[in-house]
Predict the structure.
Amino acid sequence: MTGAEVDLAFDEQTYLPAVAQDAETGDVLMLAYVTRDALERTRETGLAHYYSRSRDELWQKGESSGHVQHVEEIRVDCDGDALLYLIDQEGGACHTGYQSCFHRTIDGEVVGEQVFDPEAVYE
Amino acid sequence: MTGAEVDLAFDEQTYLPAVAQDAETGDVLMLAYVTRDALERTRETGLAHYYSRSRDELWQKGESSGHVQHVEEIRVDCDGDALLYLIDQEGGACHTGYQSCFHRTIDGEVVGEQVFDPEAVYE
């Protein structure tokens, strides 16, 4: 570790995309956005936080479902304008009940695994 | 395969983020943006295309470096507003010579592997 914190592009962009990847399987689970505050909360708590651009609010993944993401490592890309959260996912990442939000091909074929019943989780 | 093409959020957003993941190792290599045209070119050619928001132009990854990305599968997230390219990367994905653009932790520790000399590739 160098201790030198990496420059992030929050001065140019309010929201940076953050990709959540399962630290063990390597599966890409979801993509959401973070603000400086959301990133700060993630680092403080060790739980993935994001910022909803449509609801205009900071949220903790799994706050209502219990499907939290334990963040093992945060990586930054070469330009400092995208983040990668390496995580341990409780339950499933997708609100539809799938392990990953990327459970469909562009042709509509379902390639992912459903791991919970969304109706039982989100009332 | 269902044959039913997935709805994409291009009506709401001009640019959608696309994550490139090594189809074999699972490494997340880069994140860039696509327009409808960039996605179309990707599907037509089987080579990853993106759209540069700063240069305002469509580009093919590896056009100048030769480090092209052969796209094996394209996935779409649950909301249709993010894409995942599963790819076979020639050379390295990052213009700095690293295999992945996500080769640093947020604390500045280098965790990725340098696979080419950028000065020899980009003149």
